[in-house]
Amino acid sequence: MDTRQLEYFVAVADELNFTRAADRVFAAQSTVSAGVRSLERELGGDLFERDRHRVRLTPLGRQVLDAARTTLEATERMRLLADSTGGLRGEVRVGIFTNLTTIDLPGIMGEFHERHPLVDLRLGPSPSGSTGLARDVRLGRIDVAFLGLPGRVPDLLYRDLAVSPFVAVLPEEHPLAAAQSVSLAELADERWVDAREGFGNRATLDRALDERGIARRVSTELSDLGEIPRFVAARLGVAVMPELTVLRADGTVVVPLTERIDWVLSAVARTRPSAAAVALLDLLSERFGAH
Predict the structure, then answer these.
(1) Around Cβ 21, how many Cβ atoms within 10 Å?
(2) Could you read off the pLDDT of 175-204 as tens digits, one per residue?
(3) Domain at 182, CATH number
(4) Domain of 190?
């Protein structure tokens, strides 16, 4: 057997879907299927139960899974020891937020490439925001992710990067647009524009509203956090967002909140990350620590 077969097996075990597993390992579905079948022949038993509707691990598959993960981790460590140049190799799959230009993501990744030119980068968002990114890291679909969820997700390694207070984003003609500050209670009866459920900023704000017994109506939901101010400018509602995430839009004003509600931006990885993932976490800590 070879490590690529093990990678295919682990991907299918995590995804329980051959198509998603193929996307994760950047291979054709037929290649992943053939690799898993070859591994099953070598082990002398089925690793998965397959039918038209689902894929499930067999008892043998469950026994093999932990050993396969350990083998892949050990292989990564051996590659690093065998690299006579001392440079890192491989790839880092990174979960990101879309349209968050207040973070110089291209600059950070450019610096990472200069330090580690033999490491490839695969960047992409999750349609369910921080909740989806956390799940993808835990399942091994990605190696590092930006996260903005309240509290801590179990079984993840955290590096806190920044803390940003929530602010109100209002249409410029709103009666409270010229106020020194605005409270959540003053906005409770408004129509709201917000990110979809699952996004970290939404989860943090929902928790703060629940703690204060405030109900609201979110009439417009978006999967792109950076677009929210433009929808506020179109008079679809008001918004309350972490200041770090606000992309100013004509026709809106930003007003401080009376309450102090903080959004914590973190970078996360699995508890036993690869050396390349650790290098990226270290760089993120450096870059954000300098601000």
Answers:
(1) 25
(2) 999 999 999 999 999 999 999 999 999 999
(3) 3.40.190.10
(4) 163-263
